[in-house]
Each structure stands twice: as structure tokens, then as C-alpha cells.
């Protein structure tokens, strides 16, 4: 049985780059790695509805924090069986965003903290009701909000399919989300958290050791 490790952080934090480095390091050791990213745009109808809402194509759906959270959660519920199969077939299943993203962004939108009603509601919905696999560890890729925003804007300008969405362009929301992520990490929400400085070079070998790989 493999380990389920989730990379979390703001839009533009560098999650994909970190995932590439971890995958390369483990592959060199002969370890098997499966990677997935949420939302699963182009793979799942709920994820595609999320994308439409984030880009203003679903009317006022974006205004409902709980409604958006349900769409995110349904995407993961539909992926749960595949994640379990991935865990049986690989040493590591590495996810770019997972349940904690839902908790952090929704709480930030509602101006709540990690100890608020919304975070508890997300846990009850996704873990207890939908039964999605629980992570073995989280990697919080922490970068200053302005740095993350610059990276997200650069990506949008250079990748045709990466136009910035409703959440990405809201600097205040990103700042509040960063604070909730820090609180989730401090509380060890769902699984142990390991904070990574996304502004500095990452010691990949040390990071893998910290998550038990």
C-alpha cells in the first residue's frame, strides 16, 4: 500500500514544480509514483462545472460558498475508487490539491478560521459522508501572497489554457486563504503537515524522508 501525500498552497505557489521534483527523485530510486490534480478539469463533470463557475459562466453559482464546495467534493468522491487503486499499485500517490483546499478557500471566503464551522463541515462532507481516502501527509508550499500572484499571472500570460479565475485574481482572498492554510498546518488537520518554503530551494531528499519515503 502506497502513501497518499498532498501538496497544498496558494495559486502560483509552485505545486506542480514541487510535484515534478518529488516524482523525479522517487523514480530515480525505482519507486512507483502516481500523480493527480484536483479539480480534474476535462475528466469530471463536477470539475468542469467548477471551472465554468470560476470563470463566470454559471450565473450566481460562484456566490454560494457551500455550493461550490459541494462541486469540488463531488469531483473527489468520484475519484475515490481510482485513488484507492492507485494506492495499491504505487509507492506514492501525489496529489496537487485535495480536501484541505476546499476547507481553506471556503473558510477564507466566509472569513472564518480553521477552527470554524465551515472547515468542520467540509471534513464531515468529504471524509465522513463521501468516504474519500484520508491523506498520510500534507506538504504546505508557503510563498508570499504577492509572489504567488506574480507567478499565477505569468502562467496565465504564457499558457493558453491557464487564464486566471475568480479566486486567483482576488488578492485579499488569497491572503486570507494563506492564513487558514497556516492554521490547518498548525492543527495537523486530517494528517501531519510539513511546511515547505516555496521561495527557497527545496531539499527534496529531506522532504521525502519527512513524509516517510
From TrEMBL:
NCBIfam families: PRK07933.1 (NF005923). This is Thymidylate kinase. The lineage of its organism: Bacteria, Bacillati, Actinomycetota, Actinomycetes, Pseudonocardiales. Residues 7-186 form the Thymidylate kinase-like domain. It catalyses: dTMP + ATP = dTDP + ADP. Phosphorylation of dTMP to form dTDP in both de novo and salvage pathways of dTTP synthesis. Its EC number is 2.7.4.9. InterPro entries: P-loop_NTPase, Thymidylate_kin-like_dom, Thymidylate_kinase.
